Amino acid sequence: MNRIPLRAGALGALASFVLLFAGCAEEPTTATLMPVDAAAHQGGGHGSPGEAAELGSPIFDLAALPDGGIVFAEFTTLKALDRHGSIREILTVPTKPGSAVNGIAPIGARSFWVTSSGLDLAVGAGLWRVSNGSARLVGDVEAFEIENDPDATMGPGWKTPACEEDPVQGFSAGPQSNPYHLESLGGDMVVLADAAGNSILRGHAGGDLEVVAVLEPPTDEDGDWHVLKTLEDDTECYVQPVPTAVAAGPDHTLYVGELTGAPGPDMDGIQGEARIWRIDGDAAGASCPSSDECDLAVSGLTSVIDVDFGADGRLYVVEYDANGWFQAVVFGNAAGGAILACDVAGAAGPLTRDQCETIADGLILPGAITFDRHGTLWVVENHIGAAPSIHPVAMP
Q: Could you tell me the pTM of the whole model?
């Protein structure tokens, strides 16, 4: 695998995470994948392996279909796993070269919202509408980011474009965008987590985009924004929150999870810095946590990569790795990921990680989860490796 190098000055942006794999789709490899019917009959347990299926890497998201199947994307090609374990190809999204499909949100049985990853200077970042066997770019996130650069211009305007520059590795000072996971709010509206833009965007079928909220950097022990590095002109560059996941809650709110940018080999202070925010569903131009529309829902997390609500009303949270995503991906120091269940709706105040139930741990590079129509929880593991697997999770 030819890995594209990470930028030293913008490790907080998930664009780096995707760029690492953007140009290196693997040849399909055999991986264990369980038919949906078998998973449903086992009540969500692992059980005996299902049929072997050829899965290509990377797989950044999973989503449930109304018919009980699972949809996912291998790099840019959408595929569906049916109830019997068969995989069919839906279509290949015509992204810009090197841009992968990051997120999938079904609108119906054959219609989807899809995000495409942003490369350097937001190139390729987009929101797509897939229906009737074709994919159409309906939200030009690349152009929106270049024009607005929300985390540098809105609210505290905390991100300095110069902090993104890394001439050695070929990254440029300026706006960065990487729309990652997303959530459908009905047929005509969607919200997406722009990881490299550190913002939550609202998209519409007509193509309009607007900022729901911009996330502010995590804070250090003194309550100040955690500094990543200081430039020669004394400009401080901060650890970035990196929103990767968004889920619509039962109370007309949005729950947003952070991957949290890493400062490189020195991981001190990064574990436990990721948060989940509760944001008013009608918010526009908010800044979290400064605005009244934002509340802290869960703290003390590490590298959140996905969130989803279960039928029990709890928020299920995927932690990518106990050591943080940078250590796991760049240095191969994977300590295992986890899935937590947090009763955010029933909490009197913000929860801490130890107040959530651990549903599964020891997972290897878990990229996404979804609940199917039977209530079975599915996960993709090793999602950027040579042999990714999609399988149900045994519930306690």
A: 0.90
Question: Do residues 246 and 254 lie in contact, with contact meaning Cβ atoms separated by under 8 Å?
Answer: yes
Can you read off the two tokens belonging to residue 216? Answer: 């502010």
- Name which of 316, 140, 107, 283 is nearest 200 in CA terms: 283
Cis omega (within 30 of 0) for bond into 58: yes
Helix, strand, or coil here: 139?
A: strand
- Contact (CB, 8 A) for 209 and 139: yes
Beta bridge pairs of residue 39:
none
Tokens 């991981």 sit on residue: 267
Closest to 275 in 3D by CA, of 249, 247, 300 = 300
Q: pLDDT (tens digit, 9 = 90+) per residue, 361-374?
A: 999 999 999 999 99
Dihedral (CA of 276, 212, 281, 65) sign: negative
Tokens of 360: 């599964």
Asked which of 47-51, 59-63, 211-215 is least confident by mean pLDDT, the reply is 47-51
- pLDDT given at position 13: 40
Confidence of residue 338 (pLDDT cuts 50, 70, 90): very high
CA-to-CA distance for 318 and 270, rounded, in angstroms?
A: 17
Contacts of 126 (CB under 8 A, 6+ apart): 95, 99, 115, 116, 137, 139, 140, 141, 142, 179
Which secondary-structure segment (H or E) carries 330?
helix 325-330
Task: Measure the CA–CA gap between 371 and 310, rounded to whole angstroms.
Answer: 7
Within 10 A of 100 (CB to CB), how many other CB atoms are there?
25
